[in-house]
Fold each of these.
Amino acid sequence: DAGVTQSPTHLIKTRGQQVTLRCSPKSGHDTVSWYQQALGQGPQFIFQYYEEEERQRGNFPDRFSGHQFPNYSSELNVNALLLGDSALYLCASSFGTANTEAFFGQGTRLTVV
Amino acid sequence: QQQVKQSPQSLIVQKGGISIINCAYENTAFDYFPWYQQFPGKGPALLIAIRPDVSEKKEGRFTISFNKSAKQFSLHIMDSQPGDSATYFCAASPLGNQFYFGTGTSLTVIP
């Protein structure tokens, strides 16, 4: 049983560019959450998708947007990249809206230069 | 504002010893308290979690102690092993909502 898979694993982008990160949830899970983890910090919640809709959103600007597909996979898009967007982006999946038993992927390391 | 405060920032324990990491919160709406283990370059892995209706939960060498009145919870790692060396994060959430993570504890277990 594959767990949560994210792609790509590493990415280098130039300031001002746009980036798309992808996530496939664990089999049987239908809820996807995205987190940003700066170096040496705990993950910070970006948003959560359930039934193809953004259900909750953390304190992140509109440059951060997402999408969930009918197969429950998800994308995170970041526009107009800033140097401060450099971080590990984590996807977590769970079943239903209770959000217990959330499993994380290995993350995408984004470096903005 | 840090919703979940975690301490210590780093911890060094001898092999076979007990590792203890503490977390505190203020939001009484928090209803679910997981602990995650993270190795360098990897995503966090769920270790153990507790709901506030119990004061303790044990899974193998890992135990969560929960004090609802003090709004504190802690992770105890018994018989700590070098393979336990990792960063540990506590988290809290109102059920069905986002996780608020602590700042992490870097644990080093010395052989």
Amino acid sequence: DTAVSQTPKYLVTQMGNDKSIKCEQNLGHDTMYWYKQDSKKFLKIMFSYNNKELIINETVPNRFSPKSPDKAHLNLHINSLELGDSAVYFCASSQGDRALFFGSGTQLSVL
Amino acid sequence: DQQVKQNSPSLSVQEGRISILNCDYTNSMFDYFLWYKKYPAEGPTFLISISSIKDKNEDGRFTVFLNKSAKHLSLHIVPSQPGDSAVYFCAASTVGAQKLVFGQGTRLTINP
């Protein structure tokens, strides 16, 4: 009964490949997010969606494309992966009170 | 431009003593502050929050203090327990922004 679940947990791939990370929340929240934790451990927002509508896009390269088929799902597709994309990607959701609930993260390693 | 800063990358405290984690911010528009706790290979979990209209919020062993004039907040954990060993992130938001800005985290180690 995990509240925010994302798959896969680990993703190892070659430069230039395309990959997707999936996220689902069963909390009934209206807003979902993708955050990136880089090598310096900063957690930075990439995107947020409210009821399937994109509301925040924080100067993320066009190679990153989020997709929200419904308000319980927010997937992240990454084209032409680069070495610098290696990081931990966290999905999160929230409802009103501004506290985010996070998934367990996807460790992406680009070789 | 890091708007939320946690200047101590690590902190080591004896079990049973008080742990104090600090956080500074630069954006005076922030009106809501949160602390998250993160274990390895897990996502951050919400711990406690405080609105800018308050200067203190308490929840069990955890208390958050906010000093708006100094743009500083702190998290007090007392008494500290071994299970409190984790990375603690401070975060802040502004009304309507629908996003959190995080500090870089402080690794807390509780020694038996």
Amino acid sequence: DTAVSQTPKYLVTQMGNDKSIKCEQNLGHDTMYWYKQDSKKFLKIMFSYNNKELIINETVPNRFSPKSPDKAHLNLHINSLELGDSAVYFCASSQEIYLGGGQRTSGSLSGANVLTFGAGSRLTVL
Amino acid sequence: DQQVKQNSPSLSVQEGRISILNCDYTNSMFDYFLWYKKYPAEGPTFLISISSIKDKNEDGRFTVFLNKSAKHLSLHIVPSQPGDSAVYFCAAVGSGTYKYIFGTGTRLKVLA
């Protein structure tokens, strides 16, 4: 039973189209994220939602719009696709947001702040 | 501005020997660090973590060391096995940011 599932796994589309990638987690986590891995293999945070509230909105073009209908789902909609949008998009979730306090915790924490990733969605824009 | 750096893009190690993967960071606000392993066509999977109150954490064959003064952490795998061949990412997060910042990864190849 997949913990964080993304669909579609592969998406090939033309420039200018609009597309969506969906993500669902069955872990009961409160926080979900979108990461982008580009051709240079950087894993960059794009967005994060905690209990359906947007808490991270990195400098991404406003053609990218995340939507979280409920805690278990975080979708990514991309308008007017460009060649540079080609990448692998990873969805992730964590039980809670990290508030700091490495000082309070044991060496490996309880797992509440570990990110669990989906398998990724490879988007190719032609 | 890359706040988390893995300066070695690749590493080859003989089976049974120790693999040492390194990671440097620049932001002194980071206080929780994680290592992830990634196989092709899969998402990163969590391996081990360490908080800033510790300088070492072990889990089986994996040990992470943290040197706060040098802003450096390392992952030791011993003994290395062919199944450990993957890309390893270090990540860091700090108070008030919520953002997990990832390094660019090191591709480990364990030779049988």
